[in-house]
Amino acid sequence: MLYNKNILLDAYKNAKYQVTGHGKRDVSVLLDSFSNQSGLEESDMYGSGHIIDSFQEKMAAYLGKESAIFFPSGTMAQQIAMRIWCDEKGIQKVAYHPLCHLEIHEEDGLKELHHIEPVLLSDPNKIIKRDDVVNMKEDVSCLLLELPQREIGGQLPSFEDLQATSDYCREKGIKLHLDGARLFEILPFYNKTAAEVCALFDSVYVSFYKGIGGVAGAILAGPKDFTEKSKVWKRRHGGDLISLYPYILSADFYFDQRVEKMEEYYEGAKELAALYNACEGIRTLPITPVSNMFHVHVQAPKHEMERILADTYAESGVGLTGHLRENGENRCFFEVSLGDNYLAVPNSALKKTFTLLNKKLKTRTLV
Amino acid sequence: MLYNKNILLDAYKNAKYQVTGHGKRDVSVLLDSFSNQSGLEESDMYGSGHIIDSFQEKMAAYLGKESAIFFPSGTMAQQIAMRIWCDEKGIQKVAYHPLCHLEIHEEDGLKELHHIEPVLLSDPNKIIKRDDVVNMKEDVSCLLLELPQREIGGQLPSFEDLQATSDYCREKGIKLHLDGARLFEILPFYNKTAAEVCALFDSVYVSFYKGIGGVAGAILAGPKDFTEKSKVWKRRHGGDLISLYPYILSADFYFDQRVEKMEEYYEGAKELAALYNACEGIRTLPITPVSNMFHVHVQAPKHEMERILADTYAESGVGLTGHLRENGENRCFFEVSLGDNYLAVPNSALKKTFTLLNKKLKTRTLV
């Protein structure tokens, strides 16, 4: 029989229910968010106009910052934030985690375009804590903290440690920048408002297509003189588009629809992680999620687990994930990020899925 | 009476007919282009997927290039083109016109992000010709030609001179890049296909929100190894968005709708320019347009001309322009760019407008 490379993804898509995300990333994501638009509102024009101004003001207020600027992407927004803080201090070095988005997903834009050298803090498998910053030997202009640290399952420092890191950075003249790609998602765990978290940071980036589930786009917020400089760099990067409204209006629509649902996603993640952890050879990272996301680590080879999962979905009608990643020869893992889809899965179907999955995993270890 | 700063723009907007452009840049531009979308098509994902692949292939074929990549903006696409050609030759210098978009509209992104030094060719008020290139003293990696040269009214070299420039550049190992922000618009004048014009160039950028009238977005086309590199730089710039489909699908929609209308816009521009040139104290640049655009130079102070134009629109119901720019104390000018709007203005109303305008201008000079 021909081995089908997409067996898992096909089975996931064909299942009656999908556990992760908000639904398909198809054109309806845009269309739904524009269904209440008459079409009469004037486009933003190169960063000006009612649509962009009002959303930027709304986000500045929500984040508790003086000013906020809409960007097409976080990649652009964060490189620019780093550049501004480096130019201000005159030291072209920033500190961040070894698995920071800027380090592993941006083709070294920070180095190639801005000639900024990163100082990598902490082990890749741990989060950055105050002690890592205190023990840092290099002088840097800025420390970037990603909350939660996505590539290690979405882990967080305690709020007390975060506060202490912030205090230390202010004392030492190091700007503190928040990679808040998933900021909305961690507020229930911290039991803080966005403004309370952002108050610890000099600048903040948030994304609108993760937990919020919009089409694309990002906000960079901070002091007015910082955001004014960011507009100049946005133009230099080619991000000052004549019209950003397709992203802005959809971001605004889904922000209103989902920002208050983060608690539900978070509770769902804890519930789902417990179901995974009850299975043979499975452990989630973190064991107890602190946001809507976590990683699932499996003691089984990828190709074997793909078959087990696909069979499980076919029997239960519930798809858990569409992708596995190898993690050595006999281990694999995947990322789980919960949204509206999870809220629609019947509890009975979910329980049945995990009973089936666990049975298959146990049978496998007995062979 | 309080002087209203927006008197001209208000009068233009309030007129029954507007002579320039395709209509209001409002949200309906997006909505109209999505009216035939069911919503079921999957989003592009970070530069992959059917929507982006098929449009890129369509544009590569149309432009006669091996490969084409969709970018959120021309600013991003062109800086990247310059960077690739400079890195390939190892000389961080490019040649372009003193009023090139990269020189005057991009906050020096080329210099600040890519450390590329421009060599300015020709007088600002003239177009670059082969002789300017031959007489250039510096060695450069690339020559960028903007066709038509927008900031001087949209002027063009003859096709023969263009061919000679291209031949010279190939002989000397200088890459030739086309700033084709308005490439579609010049094809009727040259009486060439896009592929025939693009064959003279190593790389080409085209825009989808000028003559095409889409929401935003650009294509960069060239050899496959060039466009592959451009994808890496697109990611570095923060332009490799998770979803570009709002721009791609609207670009495709309006491309199909308008690319064959460029001849009509061009004929309209020649007709309209003749009407302007028959007025007292008015000269268009160029006298005879070579695309859908031209500039209108007026021998009258801006504030005076604003009043004259606003009064004319109020009487005739036809708005000619909403913006004037000062050009010394007693002169002003504005840009005209024709699209669908022009085709909807009744000839009688247009003639009446110019009769009124000319009368007012003549009365003014008699005072």
UniProtKB/TrEMBL annotation, chains A, B:
Residues 44-296 form the Aromatic amino acid beta-eliminating lyase/threonine aldolase domain. Its cofactor is pyridoxal 5'-phosphate. It holds the Pfam family Beta_elim_lyase. Signal peptide: none annotated. InterPro entries: ArAA_b-elim_lyase/Thr_aldolase (IPR001597), PyrdxlP-dep_Trfase (IPR015424), PyrdxlP-dep_Trfase_major (IPR015421), PyrdxlP-dep_Trfase_small (IPR015422). The keyword Mitochondrion does not apply. Keywords: Pyridoxal phosphate. Belongs to the threonine aldolase family. PANTHER family: L-THREONINE ALDOLASE, L-THREONINE ALDOLASE-RELATED. This is Threonine aldolase. The lineage of its organism: Bacteria, Bacillati, Bacillota, Bacilli, Bacillales.
